Amino acid sequence: MLIPYISHDILSDILIRLPVKSIARFRCVNNEWHILLKSSKFLKTQYQHAVEIGKFSLILRSYSNIDTLSYDPLSFTCEESSHVICPTESLEMGIEFLGCCNGLALLRHISKSQSCVLMLWNPCTNECKRVPNPPGASKDQDRIYVEYGFGYDYQIQDFKVVRLAESLEKSWCKVHVYTLKLNSWRGIDGVEMDDFDDAGMFDMARLPVNGSLHWIVYAEGSEFKNDHFILCFDIEKEEFDKRPLPILEVDAEPFLCVLGESLTLSSYDSEVVSVWELKDNGVKKSWAKFVTIELEKHFGVVNNFIPVQSLKNGKILLGLDLDDNCLHMVIYDPNQDTILDIHEDSMASSRSVAVYVESLISLETGSYLGPAQWETSHKEDEDDSKEDDEEEEEEDGDDGTEDGESLGDEEEDTESKEKINKST
Asked: Is the full-model pTM beyond 0.70?
């Protein structure tokens, strides 16, 4: 019996509707399917379809573990998708989430020996790739804070990592950009600022929106109220811009969050939270109140809060740290003012929740995230640091003769002065 021929367009339209892991298995059907299901055109179409129907997953991060949950928009439920065990020997933070875009996430781990590893990771396939640190990064002794961003440049069709190294002695950040295809860093123009507002960096604030990355920063003497503003980085243009914060109703620390396709800012006390959305009317961008939620009325004592995702039906997925020391994922209906509890986690917190859309994009490494890969990557980072040390020693050696001659001259001058003093 002959199997009827199905065109690639029709076949693609059928397969993009399947779960991503099923698509991965179907690559083994035959060589034709393997080529089709690994093509960049199919991967982009599958990803866009998932975004259009409101399908997404969650990353829940604890000190040494990462869990992923798959959200079903039809049943309003979350199911555990994967569990990754990460290194336990950490300096302070454990595994850090530095951003997520188009199905890939950027992670960081700092060992007790202060080896720093950046890792690109596909949560769906668990494939990973170590990102090398910028040359000389281990020698940034005058840098007291390093911040990262991760996004996609649609103009050159490549992923980028931006690294901002804050200076200790002056109000300035040194900036480097990494591109995945070249697997290399290059320096770009720095930016003037004094400090990052670390309190505002929830994992949900680290997602790109409308082609830009955002941080709340402080710059003394700036034109903004209380010298705080939003620093924006355009991923394609590789340029910085500044935006004011909205005028808040409560005296509380504001924090950023990416909600769907919008940048939002929230501030709350123990009773009420207000979420503001940055609107673009085509002429200028301005802040408008998106929603106000009475926290105490619905949840009692709330220790922390984050809006996670705007759903297609107008409802909002929220993450809350309640008095039971658990993270609660709930769906809030602003029209009916009702709550649906869909998931509870005793290890994660609202600060360590992030949204991503599953993708089968490959990093072409054949390496998979786990303790062994972290150990290997830390060894590679230590080797890179040794090379930096050796290069620095060679540079110092080149200047050694001149330094020695200078020192010898100083010693001769000192001896002459001592003789003069004794004679007088």
From this structure: yes
